[in-house]
Amino acid sequence: MDQTVRYTKIDTSELADLRAHAKQLESIINRGPSITFIWELSEGWPVAFVSESISFLGYQPAQFFDGELEYADIILPEDLPKIEAEVESYLTQGINDFYQRYRIKTRAGNVRWVSDWTHITRNPDGSPCQAQGIILDITDSVQAEDRAQHYLRTAGNIFIALDANGVITEVNDKTLEIIEATREDMIGTKWIDNFVPERMRPKIWNIFQDAIGKNSKDEIFEHENQIISTTAKQHTIHWYFTVDRDADGIALGIIAFGADITDRQLAEKTAHDLASMLLEDPNPVFRIDDKNGDTLLANNAANELINGLVQESHNGRAQWSALIKLAKETDIKTTFELKLAERSLLFHIVPVSSDNYTNLYVTDVTDLEKTSLALSETLKKTIFALSSVLEARDPYTAGHEERVAEIAVKIGKSMGLDEVRLHGLELAATIHDIGKIKIPSEILSKPTRLSKVEFNLIKTHPEAGANFIRGIDFDWPLADIIEQHHERMDGSGYPKGLMGKDILFEARILGVADTLEAAASHRPYRPGLGIESATKIIQEGAGTAFDADIVKACVDLVNAGEITL
């Protein structure tokens, strides 16, 4: 039987175009940033094709074509079981297109992260045939994500992420620290039901559900509430949170950052208590507005004094006007004596320039002995109130200043200081770290070693403390003692690098007492070293960092059992 052979005429120009396009495609595949693979779905995933861009990883296509390497050989062994299990699951479910992220090894032994977009080709009967993959190196992106995660994890504020049902999906280290829990304890649990006090849960659930239900985009919500740790400690948190939404605007959950303001509230309460103490003082106390001379605060005794002046002669009212004028205009501490009937009143004028007011402390100097005693008691209360403000912010050093004061007084007494100087030394020691009130509490209680920047900030506290009280008229050089308590005999101290006798004797005593107590006691970044190791530290610094005579006196007191920690 005759067979007719048919020929199809192909336009040579079209064939040339097809070949040119094929070469362009081949160039894109071989020289682009991605790597193209085709591998068999048998054991080890033998490679049927790989683009020349595999050279980015140090390999050559021939190594795969000749069977020297299979695709599974370049996947990091730690990741391979997970990747194999995922592929098997996709094949079983009939899924033909999927994305994976894993690590591979370069020929030089380096590890790189890749993203893998895979397509499965199947036989007519539906069974899987081959896998076609496009691999892209995403190492830089992964490392950037890791850095961002690190910054978020180690941030000084609380971070939590919740899903739309209020279940915790992510927390950072600060959250774990405050809640006193592990990630395993928290992830997968409901934040509100477990870490908000029971009495507040209905209100917080309403806030959560209202935010989730709002059809708003990128809105920042603000709220303040208490949370509770696993040991029943309560913290007050000021929250800023937003709703996490997908591309269609569906709420996925809540992302929240919170600042622990518990310390601030304690400091505010202490300040309030201090103001209350002034209001309850039996002596008149005024606070005058620097701008207009208005009375901002006056206790009962002050109000009685004002009423007396109003009822006094023109001379009494003239004296009051002169006092207010002086209080408004002066920027340094001074005194003003006012005569009222048979009484002599001494006004101690103390400007507080940073807050634009001036405090007037009034004492009746008609009876000097009684006045002296009252001043002494008020001074002690003020000193201890200042100390309590710092301890409220820095619980790790609670009691530190009191113990340092006790040690310093014992050293001073053994070295022959009289009662007047001992009293001044005790007061200075009681508030020697008051300048730390300007240091962020997260730095004061940081559980690891401080960075250079953080330590330089800590080193500002002696001068800050001195400036804090320099405007108050004490009978002792308390500001100078506080400013110099980190100066050292060899000039290696701070803030001014003073040497030897340029450092006040009381400041030298305070430096030894402070070092001994700090070394012996617990700190956030290390356990206490104990009295023996602390004594050794000051002995090693005798004659260089510390006054040798003061160190000897301190060591003798330790050996005699007079100083214990």
Q: Which key phrases capture this entry?
A:
Beta-Lactamase; alpha+beta; five-stranded antiparallel sheet; 565 residues; 15 strands
Structural commentary:
This protein is an alpha+beta fold and 565 residues long. The chain folds into four domains: 12-138, Beta-Lactamase (2-Layer Sandwich), CATH 3.30.450; 154-260, Beta-Lactamase, CATH 3.30.450; 266-366, 2-Layer Sandwich (Beta-Lactamase), CATH 3.30.450.20; 383-559, Hypothetical protein af1432 (Orthogonal Bundle). Helices cover 44% and strands 20% of the residues. The protein is built from 21 helices and 15 strands. The strands form three sheets. It has a five-stranded antiparallel beta sheet with strand order 2-1-5-4-3, with helices on both faces. The chain has a five-stranded antiparallel beta sheet with strand order 7-6-10-9-8. The longest helix has 26 residues, at 368-393. The protein is elongated, with a radius of gyration of 38 Å. It starts with 11 loop residues before the first helix and ends in a 6-residue tail after the last helix. Residues 369-373 have low confidence and may be disordered.
- What is the SS-derived class? alpha+beta
The name CATH uses for the topology of the largest domain is: Hypothetical protein af1432
Number of strands: 15
Uncertain spans: 369-373
Tell me what portion of residues adopts beta-strand conformation: 15-25%
CATH class wording of the largest domain: Mainly Alpha
> How many independent structural domains?
4
Strand order within the widest sheet?
2-1-5-4-3
Please, what is the average pLDDT?
83
Radius of gyration: 38 Å
Number of helices: 21
Helix share of residues?
40-55%
The best one-word shape is: elongated
Largest beta-sheet characterization: 5 strands, antiparallel
CATH superfamily of the largest domain: Hypothetical protein af1432
Q: Would you identify the CATH architecture of the largest domain?
A: Orthogonal Bundle
**Oligomer classification:** single chain
